[in-house]
Structures are given as C-alpha cells and as structure tokens.
C-alpha cells in the first residue's frame, strides 16, 4: 500500500499546508485564513494526508445546511500521482455522509484537467461556468456538482 493516512487538519499542520498551497496555487491563502478555518469557522471541515509521517496534501470544504462546497484540495508536487488526491476527496465525501450532506459543489479552472478528472471520477458533473472567476488571469471556472452524495 502507499502508506497514506488521513487526519483532521490541526494548527500544528498549518506550516506544511502553507508550503503546499504556495506550490499549488497562484494566489495561496494566508496563515490567518487557515487558522480561522480551524479555530473559528464552524462550517469548515479540513483533512490532511500524511505519507510516512510527512504531510503531503490537504483538502477542505464548508458545510451549510445540506450542501458542501469544496474550497481547496492540493497535494505536494513531489507526491502527486500516488493516490493522495483520491484519499483526500474520499475523506471529504465520507464526512458528507456522516453529516447528512446531499450535494457537493466546487469551482475548478477550465484548464485544470487533472483536477477535473479527479472530480469526474467521483461523480461530479459540469453544471456551469463562472466567467473570469479567477482574478490572477481572468480564467473561467467550471462549476461542478455531485448530487446524491
Ligand atoms: C488535483 C490534485 C489534488 C490531484 O492529486 P493527486 O494526489 O495527484 O491525485 P491522485 O494520484 O490521487 O489521482 C486521482 C485522480 O486524479 C486524476 N489524475 C491525477 N493525475 C493525473 C494526470 N497526470 N493526468 C490526468 N488525470 C490525473 C485521475 O483521475 C486520478 O485517478 P486514478 O487514481 O484513478 O488515476 C493535484 O494534482 C494537485 O494538487 N494539483 C494542484 C492543485 C489543484 O489544482 N487543486 C484543485 C483545485 S480545484
């Protein structure tokens, strides 16, 4: 097996998550944003993936009423392609089952076919476009939904 374990995100993980975020997104989140998600935001659920004790990825979502909205999912570039993304997304879906969430949505860059493949694998469907959603390059977002989670 690939020795990847999934845990809840805690403050002690934030340094590693910030590094992965900076390597993964053009406009990474601040330390304060992650700390707020952990300490204040009652709607937030975040998980991390560790391989042999090293934090290699994280994912999170907000749960409001019966809907979930995935905010982020990222794996350290050196550890991509070994199944961590699958496990992180499965962990979010499992939380949805426990918390009686029936629909799950997200936005993904139109050019990000790798992430779109991941989401499609788990039953997400394209349901719309947000024009010029991403401020850095004005790229469109594809809106995806998974119903009957
Ligand atoms: C998207 C991301 C989280 C996937 O994580 P990962 O650990 O590499 O994914 P996995 O190895 O678990 O692969 C999961 C699925 O993703 C898709 N995928 C992964 N790598 C792929 C590639 N190089 N080409 C096409 N599809 C790919 C496949 O559907 C794969 O399913 P499989 O395991 O049956 O082949 C990772 O590429 C990443 O961090 N990207 C940068 C951040 C990002 O774009 N996040 C999404 C924001 S919406």
Write a compact overview of the structure shown.
This protein has 149 residues and is an alpha+beta fold. 30% of the residues lie in helices and 40% in strands.
Structure, described:
The structure is a single chain. This protein has a single domain, classed as 3-Layer(aba) Sandwich (Aminopeptidase). Strand 2 and strand 3 form a beta hairpin. It starts with a strand and ends with a strand. It is an alpha+beta fold and 149 residues long. The protein is built from four helices and seven strands, in the order βααβββαβαββ. 27% of the residues are buried. Bound molecules: coenzyme A (COA). Coenzyme A binds next to strand 4, helix 3 and helix 4.
Protein topology:
Blueprint: E1 4-8, H1 14-24, H2 31-39, E2 44-51, E3 54-64, E4 67-75, H3 84-98, E5 103-109, H4 113-121, E6 125-134, E7 139-147
Parallel strand pairs: 4-5
Antiparallel strand pairs: 1-2, 2-3, 3-4, 5-7, 6-7
The structure holds coenzyme A.
Notable characteristics:
about 150 residues; alpha+beta; 4 helices; Acyl_CoA_acyltransferase; [Ribosomal protein bS18]-alanine N-acetyltransferase; EC 2.3.1.266
């Amino acid at each position: 097996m690939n020795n990847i374990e999934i845990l809840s995100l805690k403050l002690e993980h934030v340094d590693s998550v910030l590094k992965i975020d900076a390597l993964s997104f053009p406009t990474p989140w601040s330390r304060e944003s992650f700390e707020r998600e952990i300490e204040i935001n009652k709607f937030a659920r975040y998980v991390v993936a560790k391989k042999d004790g090293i934090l290699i990825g994280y994912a999170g979502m907000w749960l409001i009423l019966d809907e979930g909205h995935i905010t982020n999912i990222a794996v350290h570039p050196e550890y991509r392609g070994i199944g961590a993304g699958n496990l992180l997304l499965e962990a979010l879906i499992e939380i949805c089952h426990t918390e009686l969430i029936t629909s799950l949505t997200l936005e993904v860059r139109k050019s990000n076919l790798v992430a779109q493949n991941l989401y499609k694998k788990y039953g997400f469907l394209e349901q719309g476009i947000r024009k010029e959603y991403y401020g850095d390059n004005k790229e469109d977002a594809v809106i995806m939904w998974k119903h009957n989670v």
